[in-house]
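User: Hello, can you help with two protein structures?

Assistant: Certainly.
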Amino acid sequence: MPLLGMIGAASSSTFGSGLSTDGGGPAASQTDYSGVLSTIGLGTNIDWFYTSMPSGPRTMQNYIASFGKNSSSVNDGSTAWNNGHATLGRVDVYGWHGYFNYGGNDGNIRIFRGDGGYDSNDWAVFDFYHANNHDFAGNVNNSSGRYSGGESYSGGSGGIGAFGNGSSRLRLWGFSASNGGWNLLYEHGMSSSGGTSHSNNNGSWYSTGSTVVNGQGKRSAYDTMQITAFGFTASTQ
């Protein structure tokens, strides 16, 4: 079976076309997904996109901290919160389950976005849905619940049954050509079964430190690696 089928990018014949055997050296490029495959596992059906890092190279922590937000920030219903404090176009979008490339999506990811009105802690660090979902906690298992670092829960399932269990994962990746291509920056659960440990209340999104070497949580590369692009995968493990 070609790598295309193994990773579940059923809609495209080009996903993984730049793969090298080890993800390193001059072959490493933004379409070299060796690091992604080796971490998640060949044969796992994934959903994926990436976007360029604004003013990169820089660390993910530096980018997130540049917005001046933290776990105590209040969604005041302003235009900035309703629309997102930044809107970035997604590149190379694939999906076995339609998590990112669902019908009606506008091709963007939004950073620090509220639920659509004044609602204190009701916001997400990363929102993948095209419209305000009106309740990041209440809609965690609904079609509009497509986010990372939300109110109460770590991530939403998008109403996709395959992502409604404790083993499903959202993973944040950063690209650095000098560090072998795509590197894991953060990992956490999805849906109400995926836990609350990495909601927007977790200070590790905004500050350095509190890293882990495996399992759910932030990797040291989030704080230290200079990256030129970042992306997300959604998978069942």
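That covers the first. Now for the second protein you mentioned:
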Amino acid sequence: MKIRCTKIQVLQIILSLISHFGRTYCWPTRKKILILLKNRYNTVISLSALDQHLADLNAGNYIRSFKRTGKNDDGTLYNLASNRQLTWKAVAFFMTIGIKIPKQLFAWFKTGVRPALAGRPGKTIPARKNNSNERSDRARSPESVPFDLGDPRGDLIPQ
């Protein structure tokens, strides 16, 4: 799968939502992603095109999606917005093209420490094994990227 500009924009929106909420995942609706694409990047795509982008990113192991359901009072189930989580492959890709990674997300990938939620301390999970095939330490300069990616937030750390 080739990563094109719109897929990178969808990944950046997921990254900015994750960093905004201070978690390792986010739960935007597809409509919210379309609105953020329009407002932030002036990109207008159809809902089916967004579904295809999300399916490609999921198949390429850049994101993980977890289906969520709710329960009505009468016992029937309904769908909620899926949880979406970036994978190490997406973080390595961002670092390769020069996009900054939030501190809590980078700490979660490198040391296995989940960010602390309100009222609860951070939990330690097993550290991820370093894969020698990923070239995350060789980041290209942002000038070599053929399009403007922007900085989704000012408090992100450089890599």
